[in-house]
Design a protein that fits this description.
Largest sheet: 6 strands, mixed
Strand content: 5-15%
Structural class: alpha/beta
Mean pLDDT: 84
Distance between the termini: 71 Å
Helix content: 40-55%
């Protein structure tokens, strides 16, 4: 087994993986990549023997990037599958070392019978099949593979751009809710701020104290606040020891025992300062469950001791976490109130963009800036980390050809690093305190791949159950294979998804949901073309109708609204002229299928359906291209006759 090809001095090396039957096309690709300045690495296929897997891993791991030439021959080749497996393992290692790394790329050189039946289906695909021009696909590949040195230190895809992040005047409603609770004698005084990664939890904690001080300056009765902050990312020693955490929280040199005497002593020291105390705990998902339980018990006791007999004194706690499970519940008092952070609205994005334009000495009119804001919001889905990348890109590009913000190409350039480094990072997908030995025998790479596939198949759905996962496993061979390789059952997979940081929390329903902004971002990332999106929504709509038909009571209504939404999105992309008549017919049929149960009459279910529809902003948006259509659908569903 020998390495073939290669050119000294190339900027970047590409491992070229192809089936033996595709040797002619592989040679064409090799020559063109060679002319573009890449070093090409290939392995000659041969009989497998001892050490073959290790040699493949060494060769693939030594390259800067991996390019698979996808065809039916490739999918049928055990050798190619071994190279692909080695590439997935290498990308996992690279991503952990210095994220984000886009190591794997797929070039479709022929139409395949089942492109989703491979673990490579979740990676970027370039099309050179049929009449698609190879030169265009390879030029796009060259752009994706260009090294950081060519991008320059100010590129928006490089962490640490020279531009300061813009100021987002946001969170007004959330801040008022927390600050009013902290300052009111009746509370609530304990808060849990929960959100997926990069949604601004850390910044929110800092804003709370600022708002307290601002409110204090305007109040007739002055209440001095002192903040004690701990970020568990910086203090790994405190993640399993509540005594160490209390010591860091209150500026003590030794761990605080959980004994009543120690807590009374701590309360006396705090009371002698005669100030209200705000404790903030960041990255609380890193705290081990037992330590979280002990910490909550200690803070509950301090809550009773500190303001005792001093009505003006407050003791507040604000926790920021990606998970709610360790903190929910009523006992011990006080109850911890949940606050789920959302993505920024388009209005917040517009405000930031207007101020950004002033800083850049731009003279764009309000209508133009509003169009830009809509494009930035669509690309970023209001996620602060990606919003900042977008605005960095705008300034780096000197506001030229802003229509590129609406292109899938720029979305890939800006969103892919964010998705890989933040949303799909090991820290987001796995419990950082879990015992590595508790992972399935395949190791962290295979569970990660299974979870990425899971988010791919779930991205079109606004909620999911075990039935959804079971259906997707039966209809998507690539997904099923990744889950099998991870050593998981469908129930294991559902639990693994529940343990990630990408779900909407808190959620008071028996099913689960991806965080809406994250879901929409992953949907656009995994389903890149209108054709792929239409197919995804058609498949989802068919399943939801079957699922709904098996339900009773309010679940029938959930299925009705979801089926209408899937159909509306599908028609807006494929047959907009048919939207009005097709949706009206579906609304009549679905409403007519609502059946009374022991708990609800059909009339009650129709009224419930109307409420859910009127609260559904995404359904309204999907039908907005036809004036009056949404209200007509609501009227159809709400009427007893269906007309």
């Amino acid at each position: 087994m020998d390495l073939v090809g290669g050119r000294a001095g190339a900027l970047i090396s590409v491992f070229l993986s192809s089936a033996a039957e595709d040797i002619e096309q592989a040679e064409v690709v090799r020559k063109r990549l060679d002319r573009l300045g890449f070093e090409i690495v290939r392995l000659q296929h041969g009989a497998s023997g001892p050490g073959t897997a290790e040699r493949i891993e060494e060769a693939v791991g030594g390259a800067s990037a991996f390019l698979a030439l996808l065809s039916d021959h490739y999918l049928a080749s055990a050798w190619c599958m071994a190279e692909a497996a080695a590439a997935i393992k290498s990308e996992e290692q690279l991503r952990a070392a210095q994220p984000p790394v886009a190591f794997i790329h797929v070039l479709e050189i022929a139409r395949t019978q089942a492109p989703e039946a491979t673990a490579l289906s979740i990676y970027v695909h370039l099309n050179a099949a049929g009449t698609a021009p190879l030169d265009a696909a390879l030029d796009e590949l060259r752009r994706r593979l260009r090294p950081a040195a060519e991008l320059g230190s100010h590129s928006s895809v490089i962490a640490g751009s020279q531009h300061e992040p813009p100021e987002f005047h946001n969170r007004r409603e959330e801040l008022d809710k927390v600050v009013n609770g902290l300052t009111d004698s009746g509370g609530p005084h304990f808060w849990l701020v929960v959100a997926p990664p990069q949604l601004g939890k850390t910044r929110f904690l800092g804003q709370v104290l600022h708002e307290l001080q601002t409110k204090n300056a305007d109040a007739a009765l002055k209440v001095e606040w002192e903040q004690r902050s701990v970020d568990l990312r910086l203090h790994p020693d405190a993640r399993r020891d509540s005594g160490q955490l209390l010591a860091r929280m209150f500026g003590l040199s030794e761990a605080v025992p959980a004994s009543p005497e120690a807590l009374r002593s701590l309360a006396r020291e705090i009371r002698r300062k005669n100030v209200s105390l705000l404790c903030t705990l960041d990255s609380a998902e890193l705290l081990e469950a037992a330590a979280a339980e002990r910490l909550r018990s200690c803070l509950s006791k301090l809550y009773k001791l500190i303001p005792d007999g001093r009505p003006a004194m407050r003791f507040g706690l604000v926790i920021a976490s990606r998970s709610v499970e360790e903190w929910r519940g009523v006992w011990p008092a006080p109850r911890i109130s949940d606050l789920s952070l959302t993505g920024f609205t388009v209005e917040i994005v517009g405000q930031a963009l207007r101020e950004f334009a002033v800083d850049c000495r731009r003279q764009d009119g309000p209508e133009m800036l509003a169009r830009y804001a809509a494009s930035v919001y669509k690309l970023s889905e209001g996620l602060p980390g990606l919003l900042t990348r977008c605005l960095h890109w705008i300034k780096d590009e000197d506001w030229l050809e802003m229509e590129r913000l609406d292109s899938q190409e720029l979305f890939e350039e800006l969103a892919r690093p964010y998705i890989m480094a933040d949303l799909l990072s090991p820290h987001s997908l796995f419990d950082q305190n879990a015992n590595p030995g508790s992972l399935p025998s395949g190791g962290s790479g295979q569970p990660r791949l299974a979870l990425e596939h899971a988010f791919r198949v779930l991205a079109p759905y606004r909620f999911f159950t075990l039935s959804h996962l079971t259906y997707c496993l039966g209809s998507d061979p690539g997904f099923a294979d990744a889950v099998q390789q991870a050593g998981w059952t469908a129930q294991d997979l559902l639990q693994a998804i529940s343990d990630t940081a990408l779900l909407e929390e808190p959620l008071n329903e028996p099913w689960q949901e991806l965080h809406p902004s994250v879901r929409r971002l992953l949907y656009r990332y995994y389903f890149k073309s209108a054709e792929q999106r239409v197919a995804a929504h058609r498949d989802a709509m068919d399943f939801v109708r079957i699922w709904s038909g098996r339900q009773s009571g309010r679940e029938q209504v959930i299925g009705l609204v979801e089926a209408l939404w899937h159909q509306a999105v599908m028609l807006s992309l494929s047959e907009p002229a048919e939207m009005e008549s097709s949706l009206a017919e579906s609304a009549r049929k679905l409403a007519g299928q609502l059946a009374h149960s022991e708990s609800f009459t059909a009339a009650e279910l129709r009224r419930y359906a109307v409420r859910r529809m009127r609260d559904d902003g995404e359904l309204q948006q999907a039908t907005s291209s036809v004036n009056g259509l949404f209200d007509w659908l609501v009227a159809i569903v709400g009427s007893a006759s269906g007309y």
